[in-house]
Design goal:
Layout: H1 2-7, E1 18-19, H2 21-28, H3 32-40, E2 47-48, E3 54-57, H4 58-66, H5 73-78, H6 81-88
Antiparallel strand pairs: 1-3, 2-3
Helix pairs in contact: 2-3
InterPro entries: ATPase_terminase-su_N
Protein name: Terminase ATPase subunit N-terminal domain-containing protein
Pfam family, one: Terminase_5
């Protein structure tokens, strides 16, 4: 089961501390290419799981949301704060 989840790009950790770009995009209600673009530009740090897949750690997300690039600040501010808190493991 864990292998299948991992192959589909889902986190297999019992604690939500790592995410795929698809998971982040789904929670934030943005397109997955938006999140992939953040990664490609180096704004959102990742760890490689394989040659085509990577994972984003919770602390990398926290760093990104606390200090986004200047031209993304308004876009990040418009994202639902509950979704961001969910990804970061914060209580509402």
């Amino acid at each position: 089961m864990a292998t299948k989840l991992w192959a589909l790009g889902y986190s297999t950790s019992p604690f939500l501390d790592n995410y795929s770009s698809a998971e982040i995009a789904r929670v934030l209600c943005v397109h997955s290419t938006t999140v992939s673009g953040w990664v490609r530009r180096g704004w959102l740090k990742t760890s490689r799981r394989s040659s085509k897949r990577y994972q984003v750690r919770r602390w990398h997300l926290k760093s990104f949301f606390e200090n986004p690039p200047q031209h993304l600040k308004k876009r990040i501010a418009s994202i639902d704060s509950e979704a961001i808190n969910y990804l970061l493991g914060r209580k509402a």
